[in-house]
Design goal:
single chain, 115 residues, mainly alpha, two-stranded antiparallel ribbon
């Protein structure tokens, strides 16, 4: 089988178009990366201004209820997080924040259903 030869001008045009497309994609990716880096810097500055240590960020997203309890009782998020089932408390002890024995989490809810 004979290979069909294309005119060199066509090949040059195709290469020029591909080059332009790739340069444009590269420029867009650099802009996106720059934007993400700026947002990261802003977030890190906000955390440092507020005195948060990055390791102090909760491991799961906070619910509105948990956030309201943190503000109401002025407690750290660790006081409302169950390390056994890795979830937030769904109900608080009547004596919270002085006592936490009757706080309810997913562990307790499972026990109530099965027990």
């Amino acid at each position: 089988m004979a290979k069909v030869m294309r005119h060199p001008g066509e090949r040059i045009n195709q290469l020029t178009e591909d080059n332009y497309r790739l340069r444009r994609e590269l420029m867009l990716m650099r802009q996106r990366l720059s934007s993400v880096n700026v947002r990261l810097d802003i977030a890190q500055r906000q955390l440092s201004v507020k005195g948060y240590d990055l390791t102090a960020i909760p491991p799961i997203p906070m619910t509105k209820t948990v956030l309201s309890w943190i503000n109401e009782y002025q407690v750290p998020w660790e006081a409302l997080y169950c390390t056994e089932c890795k979830s937030w408390f769904s109900e608080l002890d009547n004596s919270f924040p002085y006592h936490c024995e009757c706080c309810v989490c997913k562990c307790d809810e499972r026990e109530m259903k099965h027990g």
